[in-house]
Structures are given as structure tokens and as C-alpha cells.
């Protein structure tokens, strides 16, 4: 019996720890306690089984391993991006974006749903926090959608799904943690995730369009009396066209002496600032050139878009590391909040408190995962996991499908941080053995974790929306009507179509890895074009200025003279005859040392 336990200690440990997590015990303490408990068992069984490589002095490695977490520069990006998102969320940026884009899409059927998807993507690229996005849009958009007779399930599904975009749209915290655990560059992870994220946003909009065709009564357009900004779309198109023209003019005329990426940055900055300044002048000087709609859209949209470009653009162009980009983003968020006169001491304190709590949460989970990992690897748990996964039928595809299903199920019960710190280090070696690109693998897991936020009954996004949706009949202060409550079943039902979209997206990324692997910059070198030139030491060899240069007359500095040996000929300097033999040393007896009389 003891031999059987010793041989199967790894699966026993893994099952016990996962069971405790699923029951609901705190993650960090469960991992650490499980690691220490099974460490004691492993040490006692190490005399019986050669597969167990645990001994008491190994415990002394824990301080160094924990100290290594604190030295991890990559994880510095987590508090920076969290702080940036919380400052923007507390400064009511989501409210401004939803109101403005809702007015822009108002005349279109399903316009508020389109606005929710677009704002969800913008919030994902700025806040990067699912809870903040879902709660903000639930508080602002859901009452408006219900006021104008949107279907409750469709409205809640669009809000919950758009909020989860923060899981996959850079600068996502999920991608930072995933890159750290996979041992890959955060910048590469961001570049790889960009195209799948844009496709997901596009498919969400296509779904809204399909609903407006099949069930037009589910998503009506805003009535004309609610469009307070009026028309003027062509005015907005004109501003955009002028900004694009200014970008190309600056790129080809003003910044021609700069290198490529710097030219792009400064050209885009010039065009953006010009559009913003012109819109502000039109408003404050009452020029009347732009419509109110165009003016409002430019003034509200450009600051967050500029912040997104400041963060992601500098990372993608290689100007800044993700950690530096996060620091610039946090600074930019403070500047935006200050410019809008919404940066108060209370807002700053709330953002710092929440950032500290999340950073401590991540740190303690990492510490628990390190304690768990030392024991699990000491009992060959990694070998057991790898052999189990590599024995799956179907090779690479079978492995990816199985891992997708496993992570999806775990995502219904565990937070993405827990899955990233526990499961990803165990799955990555098997993926690498199969030759799977780890950036590709990380993006698949990221989309999977995004899907898990929507799955009933434990989807976190659904919980966040449930906390702000009306649970009983309520009176709309604008219309004066009594509106029905939003039932939990309607929230769950509304999320189902978006779960299907997410699954199809996972299959698409698995089928077409090029959607992610375009991050690789391949350089093709033709061996026949390689030329190696070795400089010569003779005349014209290129080393005339060297003390080892062209032999010649001593007066011309041609040879190498040794100090204090004027009687010897210059080393390497032949006589004037050219090919004559060098002069013999005194005495011509090579068995005797030379004399220097």
C-alpha cells in the first residue's frame, strides 16, 4: 500500500489540492499548505521510492525562490496597468464614451449595442479589468437599453461579453501573467493577441447586425428626440480625412530624417493633436465649422485613443518595454483625469487601495504556487503531467482540444490568476515538447479564459452584471415608466450566443495559427551573398597605421623595434634585397645564447 501511494503521490497531490480549491478555500494558502503537507509526506517516502527527490534541506530554497518573484520585472506591469484602468474608470471615462458613441450610432438599429461593443473594446485597451468594464457598462448602458425596449437577454449578453474583452485585448493582465508563466516576451504576446482580439470585436458587431435583421424589435434605434447631439456625420468624416492627410504630410515632409518607427509616432501625434486642437477651438471660439456631433466625438475619443497608442504603440514599435508602457499609461491616466478635473484625493486613494490589494493578491498566489511547485516537481509531478498529455490521441490538435476543454471547465470555478499560476506551468512543457509555439498556446488559453467568464452558473462577468442589474421592478426617472426586473435566467440566456462565438474563435485560432504567429519577424539570409574579408598585412592591406603594419625602412616607421636593442634588425623587416636571408646572429652557434656586446 505504501509503495502504491509513493508511486502515485503526484496525482494524489494534484487531486487533493484542486479539490480544496474547488471547495472554495483561499488559493494562496491552499497551494502553500498543500505543498508543505505533501513535502513532509514526500520526504518520508523518499527512502522507499526512487521517483521522489525530496529532502529537508530543500526547504531552505524557498526564501530565494520567493525573493526571485519580487525581482521579476515583468510583473511590475500588473500594478501599473491596474492603476491606469482604475483611474480612468473612477474618472467616468466609460460614461463619456458610452454617451458619445451611443449618440453616434443612435440613428442605426441596434446602435446602443454597437456602442457597447466598441466601448467595451476601448475600455479593454485602457482599463484591462473585466469587473470595471462590466460594472461601468451595466450601470450606464443597461438602463438606457431597457428604456428603449431592448430585449433583456440580448442587452445583458452584449454587455457581459463586451466586458470580457479586457481578457484578450492588449494590455490585458491575463496576457502579462501568461507571458511570464510561459517564459515569453509580453510584447510578443500583445502583438500575437491583437489580430484575434480585433476579429472577436468584429464578430460581436456582426452578431448584433444579424440580430437587427432577424429580430429587429430586440434592438430598436434611438428615437430622434433623444439624439441631443443632432446629425453631422459628414463633418466627422471630414475631420478624419483631414487628420489622415496631415499624418501622411507629416510623415513624408516633416519627419523624413527620423527612423521609421519614430516617424510613425510623431506623424500620428501631430495629426491627432491638430484634430483635437481644432475641435476645442471650434467649441470655445464658437466657429461653427464642425457639427456638435463631430466636435464631441473628437474631444471625447482622442484622449483615450492617444493613451492606447502611448501604451501599445510604444510597445509594438519597440520604443518601450511593457513595464515602461504601463508606467507611461498610469501617468497618462493621471493627466487625463486631472485635465477633466476629476482627479480628487478620494479617487486617487481608491485606485491605490484597489491596486495594492490586487498586486498583493497576485503576489501571494505566486508565492503559494512556488511552494506547491517545489514539492510537485520533487515528486516528478511534471513528468506525470507531461506523459499524460503526450499520450493523448491526435497529437498537437488532440492536445490543444483536450487542454481547451480542461481549462474551460476549471474556468467555471477558478479565477484566471489561479489557472495561470497553477495549470500553465504544468501544461507548457508538454506543449513545447509537441513543438507548439508558446505564444500561440498562450493566446488560445487567453481566449479560453475569456470564454469562461461567460459560462453559467459561475461566470464572473455574469456575477458582476447581476450585481448591478435591477432585481425588481423599477421606475425609470427619464420616461416615468415602471420597467421590469432583469432575471438571472435572462442574463445566462443572453450570454449563450457569445459563448458559441468564443468557442468558434478558439477553433479558428487553432486551425489558423498564423493569426497569432505573425508576431515573428523572419529574416531570410542568402548564404551565397555572405562575404568575409580578412585584412592583409602587406602593402595596401589596410593596417599601415599599425605597429604591425607594412614592413619598410626604420626611418619610415615600417618595422617593430624593441626598446634598447638597436643592434638587432627590425623584427619582420627584410634586408633591402627583398628575398635575402635574414642576417645570422653573432657566433652562428644556435646552441649558445646570443651576446649583445
From TrEMBL:
Part of the tripartite ATP-independent periplasmic (TRAP) transport system. Its main location: membrane. The chain crosses the membrane at residues 12-45, 66-88, 112-142, 154-178, 190-213, 233-253, 265-285, 297-317, 360-379, 399-426, 438-465, 491-512. Residues 14-515 form the TRAP C4-dicarboxylate transport system permease DctM subunit domain. Pfam families: DctM. Keywords: Cell inner membrane, Cell membrane, Membrane, Transmembrane, Transmembrane helix, Transport. It comes from Chelativorans intermedius. The keyword Hydrolase does not apply. The keyword Protein biosynthesis does not apply. Signal peptide: none annotated. It is found in: Cell inner membrane. This is TRAP transporter large permease subunit. Residues 541-597 are annotated as: Disordered. It is a multi-pass membrane protein.
